[in-house]
Design goal:
Number of helices: 10
Protein name: Monosaccharide ABC transporter substrate-binding protein, CUT2 family
Radius of gyration: 20 Å
Pfam families: Peripla_BP_4
Distance between the termini: 27 Å
Bound molecules: alpha-L-arabinofuranose
Subcellular location: Cell envelope
Organism: Micromonospora halophytica
Family: Belongs to the bacterial solute-binding protein 2 family.
Structural class: alpha/beta
Number of strands: 12
Order of helices and strands: EHEHEHEEHEHEHEHEHEHEEH
Shape: elongated
Largest sheet: 6 strands, parallel
Length: 307
């Protein structure tokens, strides 16, 4: 995939266009779709030739795509690593080929920081922490135990690891807040629905759902309703992302709180691509700005929400 026929990369085509190879995680969520659109639009607007590959949530596909980009001698490689570990070999291959690499959205756990130029994306630990802090605030007057179930993102992914950590840290000082079940729903609606069904069967008293993204929360809504419970009332629901469908659920009172994760990384990514291609120095970390939403804030923001 991603084999254009006009400019085959490098200088072979004789054009001045920068060729960017981008390996995307997949199309698992509304967030991911918005992220892909942002990258494609921004590449077009910046006059950058984009070779885009969808890895269908498989690391082996991403490694293959990156090797293809190296073979095609693209100018810059960017990718959103599906999981954190296991990238050193292929990143060394890119470095040996003198192709700069930009991590987008998710980071890697490589000890050697010279394997990539920069990492642009959100602070996932913070998103988890903000979610936990909101819950602590909401449950201040609770007398009995508050039972929480957690729908984790893709196992081994940075957002799943970090959101889990930030949330756990935020609620740690409150022993009545207890995560009674925590399992991966792979960031998909189907996964969220299926795992929530299991949670509901195994746990007679669930007070709170913390879902690592909107899509899993949206899938869980079906399971909760089917179990005869009212989402947003019987079960307090906290999610992350703030994509349109999530914001609609929040405005409708089915969700109670969302910590935003912005998918609109395209324009900033293209700026970084131009800079590393020109040999300019770039910051090693570019953090995305984001906020949080309550029901009232979602109602106000929804009409002008772009994705
Ligand atoms: O890496 C970002 C996460 O990946 C988003 O929160 C989730 O929706 C997506 O699948």
């Amino acid at each position: 995939s991603g084999c254009g026929n006009s400019d085959t990369g490098g200088d072979a085509g004789g054009t001045d266009k920068i060729v960017l190879g981008f390996s995307q995680v997949g199309a698992e969520s509304g967030w991911r779709t918005a992220n892909t659109n942002s990258i494609k639009e921004a590449a077009g607007a910046a006059g950058i030739e984009l070779k885009f590959d969808d890895a269908q949530q498989k690391q082996e596909n991403q490694i293959k795509a990156i090797r293809n980009f190296i073979q095609q001698k693209v100018d810059v490689i960017a990718f959103s690593p599906v999981v954190e570990s296991g990238w050193d070999t292929v990143l060394k291959e890119a470095r040996d080929a003198k192709i700069p690499v930009i991590l987008t959205d998710r980071s890697v756990d490589s000890a050697d920081k010279t394997l990539y130029q920069t990492f642009i994306g959100s602070d996932f630990v913070k998103e988890g922490r903000l979610s936990g802090e909101w819950l602590v605030e909401q449950t201040r007057s609770a007398t009995g135990p508050v039972n929480i179930v957690e729908l984790q993102g893709t196992t081994g992914s940075a957002p799943a690891n970090d959101r889990r950590k930030g949330f756990a840290e935020a609620i740690a000082a409150n022993p009545n807040l207890k995560v009674v079940a925590s399992q991966s729903g792979d960031f998909t609606r189907a996964g969220g629905k299926q795992v929530m069904e299991q949670f509901l069967k195994a746990n007679p008293k669930i007070d709170v759902l913390f879902a690592h993204n909107d899509d899993m929360g949206l899938g869980a809504l079906e399971a909760i309703t089917a179990a005869g419970k009212v989402p947003g009332k019987d079960i307090t629901i906290i999610t992350i992302d703030a994509v349109k469908d999530g914001m609609q659920a929040l405005a409708d009172g089915k969700f109670n709180f969302i910590a935003e994760c912005s998918p609109l990384l395209g324009p900033q990514l293209m700026d970084l691509v131009k800079k590393v291609h020109a040999g300019e120095s770039v910051p090693t970390r570019v953090e995305t700005e984001e906020t949080t939403f309550t029901v009232e804030q979602a109602k106000a923001a929804l009409p002008t929400r772009k994705y």
